[in-house]
């Protein structure tokens, strides 16, 4: 049986910075409130003519280069995004694979909101373990600024743009393999975090203008409570099921939604600060891009070494959630 190895990482963040002070000029908020409630100080915003696929391409180029593979060896591209270049079609994954010149590959998007990267990791693992694919490029890419309502202080302070990508490859060596991935969803909580307009559900009973808007709406406090409860339970379970101790985790790489959620989950596992990877302060919440952007951060700063074990966790609209136990396994 083939196993799936996490070979490489890459990421891209747009250069334009939107600070808390900038937001305080746009809505009734303050740097103090945002910092205290979320841990976010600033986020990046893509240029008008910079699409989700453009950011995905930049992250993917780095991931392919660092994988040691030739791009012709990539046989599948999966993109997690809730802010695709085009709603409905074509998929952002097909646009990215063409811009990268990958030729004839399987390519598709998935929608699992902020849990997207954990979901595409599980898809890559399943395709590789079944023998259907050998080298899968997975990308979390978001231009959330395009679906953010900058008059709504409850959401606009949270989100930013960016992309992260990884190459997942087949290996015979079980020691290199992704150990386990949990994914879950519960549509009962759909209304906590959603873009209510713009889909087939809204065309018949809303004005045209509303129907074309995909702005996100969130019941933040309720989402917060479900997130802490669900994630705390999930990370404890994935460690227990795999007989792994929290002290065996070198890097806890959570979805970067809110510093208080991250701390609550880290405390439940009794993790030391050095184990917890944080980028929320500088990038905010970039949904499906946040985990790979955070992994890239520890890679580029030299903190992520071959063989080290990462615990990923994420939570987002749907509601969806997931966790993963992933050794970093670059080709020697
Ligand atoms: O990534 C996907 C999953 N998403 C999440 O996990 C996000 C989860 N939720 C959160 O991170 C937090 O709920 C928020 C950061 C969004 C909000 O923090 P909170 O501590 O839950 O605040 P709250 O919604 O309970 O609001 C408290 C107060 C309210 O005022 P009153 O009713 O007490 O007078 C809000 O109107 O804070 C007010 N408020 C703000 N004040 C200043 C809400 N947003 C702001 C703001 N600036 N930006």
List keywords for this structure.
332 residues, alpha/beta, Peroxisomal Thiolase, Chain A, domain 1, 13 strands, five-stranded mixed β-sheet, four-stranded mixed β-sheet, 11 helices, binds oxa(dethia)-CoA
Describe the fold and architecture:
With 332 residues, this protein is an alpha/beta fold. The protein has one domain: Peroxisomal Thiolase, Chain A, domain 1, CATH 3.40.47. It is 32% helix and 23% strand. The chain contains eleven helices and 13 strands. The strands form four sheets. A five-stranded mixed β-sheet has the order 1-7-6-4-5, with helices on both faces. Strand 4, helix 4 and strand 5 form a beta-alpha-beta unit. The chain is globular and about 55 Å long. It starts with a strand and ends in a 5-residue tail after the last strand. The relative contact order is 0.20. The model has no long low-confidence stretch (mean pLDDT 95). The site of oxa(dethia)-CoA has 20 residues, from helix 2, helix 6, helix 8 and strand 12.
As laid out across the biggest beta sheet, the strand order is 1-7-6-4-5
Low-confidence stretches: none
Report the total helices.
11
Please give the number of β-strands.
Answer: 13
Main sheet?
A: 5 strands, mixed
In whole angstroms, the N-to-C terminal distance is: 21 Å
What is the CATH T-level topology? Peroxisomal Thiolase, Chain A, domain 1
Structural class by SSE content: alpha/beta
Q: In percent, how much strand structure appears in the residues? A: 15-25%
Structural domains: how many: 1
Order of helices and strands: EEHHEHEHEHEHEEEHEHEHHHEE
Helix content: 25-40%
CATH architecture: 3-Layer(aba) Sandwich
The quaternary organization reads as: single chain
CATH class identity = Alpha Beta
Question: What is the CATH homologous superfamily assignment?
Answer: Thiolase/Chalcone synthase
Shape: globular
Radius of gyration (Å)? 19 Å
């Amino acid at each position: 049986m083939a196993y799936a190895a996490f070979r490489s990482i890459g990421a891209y963040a747009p250069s334009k910075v939107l600070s808390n002070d900038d937001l305080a000029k746009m809505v009734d908020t303050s740097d103090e409130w945002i910092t205290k409630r979320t841990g976010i100080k600033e986020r990046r915003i893509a240029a008008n003519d910079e699409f989700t696929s453009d950011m995905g391409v930049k992250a993917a180029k780095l991931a392919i280069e660092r994988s040691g593979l030739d791009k012709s060896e990539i046989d599948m591209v999966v993109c997690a995004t809730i802010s695709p270049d085009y709603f409905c079609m074509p998929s952002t994954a097909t646009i990215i694979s063409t811009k990268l010149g990958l030729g004839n590959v399987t390519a598709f998007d998935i929608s699992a909101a902020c849990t997207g990267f954990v979901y595409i990791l599980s898809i890559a693992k399943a395709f590789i373990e079944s023998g259907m694919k050998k080298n899968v490029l997975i990308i979390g890419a978001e231009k959330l600024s395009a679906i953010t309502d900058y008059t709504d202080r409850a959401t606009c302070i949270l989100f930013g743009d960016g992309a992260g990508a990884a190459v997942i490859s087949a290996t015979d060596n079980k020691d290199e393999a992704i150990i386990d991935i949990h994914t879950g969803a519960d549509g009962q909580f759909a209304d906590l975090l959603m873009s209510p307009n713009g889909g087939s559900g809204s065309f018949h009973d809303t004005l045209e203008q509303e129907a074309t808007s995909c702005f996100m709406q969130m019941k933040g406090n309720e989402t917060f409570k479900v997130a802490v409860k669900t994630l705390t339970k999930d990370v404890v379970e994935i460690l227990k099921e795999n007989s792994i101790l929290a002290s065996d985790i070198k890097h806890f790489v959570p979805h970067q939604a809110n510093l208080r959620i991250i701390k609550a989950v880290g405390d439940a596992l009794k993790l030391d600060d050095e184990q917890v990877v944080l980028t929320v302060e500088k990038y905010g919440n970039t949904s499906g891009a946040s985990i790979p952007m955070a992994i890239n951060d520890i890679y580029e700063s030299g903190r992520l070494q071959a063989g080290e074990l990462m615990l990923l966790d994420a939570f987002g609209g749907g509601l969806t959630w997931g966790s993963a136990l992933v050794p970093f396994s670059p080709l020697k």
